[in-house]
Write a structure and sequence with these properties.
The complex is a heterodimer.
Chain A: H1 3-24, H2 28-48, H3 52-81
Helix pairs in contact in A: 1-2, 2-3
Chain B: H1 2-22, H2 31-38, H3 47-55, H4 57-82, H5 97-120, H6 128-144, H7 156-179, H8 190-214
Helix pairs in contact in B: 3-4, 4-7, 4-8, 5-6, 6-8, 7-8
The chains are: A mainly alpha, B mainly alpha.
């Protein structure tokens, strides 16, 4: 088993794990953080599939902007509850 | 029981997808070779940028049009809500000075990275969309650090910036339509035209993506 294959296998397993954690987390903030983690791993996966353009876009839009928007929405929800 | 059914369905889907992936038909048109053969005529050296801005330029034109349309809809809905917004509470005290200093330090770097990505797009991975996203992320960071207020009603300059990329792209498209076909650049000016379009797109995309955030995030003071 080559090193690259081991890395890919680890990447796939971590992605499935983070996706599952994001969906099954009972606390919203943890779910959002796991979603961001999933987005960054996804960007890494695109880079491994030799599509660094999509990887860059995924990291910036998928993980960065969407994550910030979700965190902001979570903050707004928290403020509303107080 | 319900969970078991869902897991069973997911497993079935995975098996089906793996099966479909296994006997995938070969691509009927060899696009890779066609792009590589025409790369010298595109004005840029990176195949992805060549496809996005030259060979399939109208796809990108329509993409930016769709994004602009989405922002206009948000603007239309937002203005309605803004008219009955209550007095805002000062939340400036809640943001730590560390975050503000970090945001101030990071923003110039992010702007530099954005313009590097724009410039790099012509010969390596990068381009207007990624650069615009980084610009938008900088604006969002400033907003979250309470250094940039949310846009209650964009002024004329901001509106021009939002629509500018699309208008430049449309103008180039119209110009090329008069010369021959839509978005078919003359060979010697192709590189310059693509850079002009990409610069406009970067600014507009940055503003549009930031606008999706800053126009929606008007909840700072609303506690109702």
């Amino acid at each position: 088993m080559s090193l690259e294959f081991a890395f890919d296998l680890l990447l796939v397993l971590t992605m499935v794990w983070s996706a599952w954690r994001s969906l099954s987390a009972t606390r919203l903030d943890r779910a959002i953080v796991m979603f961001i983690v999933f987005g960054l791993l996804m960007a890494l996966a695109w880079a491994r599939l030799s599509a660094p353009d999509i990887g860059l876009a995924e990291a910036a839009i998928g993980a960065g902007l969407t994550g910030a928007l979700l965190l902001d929405a979570y903050g707004a929800l928290q403020r509303r509850e107080i | 029981m319900k969970r078991l059914l869902v897991v069973l369905g997911a497993v079935c889907l995975i098996v089906l997808l793996l099966g479909a992936m296994h006997d995938l038909a070969p691509a009927s048109v060899e696009l890779h070779a066609a792009v590589a053969a025409n790369l010298t005529a595109s004005g840029v050296e990176h195949p992805v940028t060549a496809v996005l801005l030259n060979f399939r330029g109208y796809d990108t034109l329509l993409e930016i049009a769709v994004l602009l349309l989405a922002l206009i809809v948000i603007l239309a809905i937002g203005r309605e809500e803004a008219s009955n917004a209550e007095a805002t509470v000062d939340v400036r005290l809640l943001v730590s000075p560390v975050l503000q200093t970090l945001a101030k330090l990071a923003t110039p770097l992010m702007i530099m990275v954005a313009f590097y990505l724009l410039w790099a797009g012509s010969f390596r991975p990068g381009g207007a969309f990624q650069a615009g996203a980084v610009l938008a992320a900088a604006a969002v960071l400033l907003h979250l650090a309470e250094l940039l207020p949310s846009w209650q009603s964009p002024g004329a300059r901001l509106r021009l910036g939002l629509a500018g990329g699309f208008l430049i792209f449309l103008a180039v498209g119209a110009g090329s339509l008069m010369q021959g076909a839509l978005l078919e650049y003359p060979l010697e000016q192709a590189g310059a035209l693509i850079l002009l379009i990409e610069s406009g797109l970067t600014i507009s995309l940055g503003l549009i993506l930031a606008g999706l955030f800053l126009l929606l995030s008007r909840d700072d003071g609303e506690t109702s």
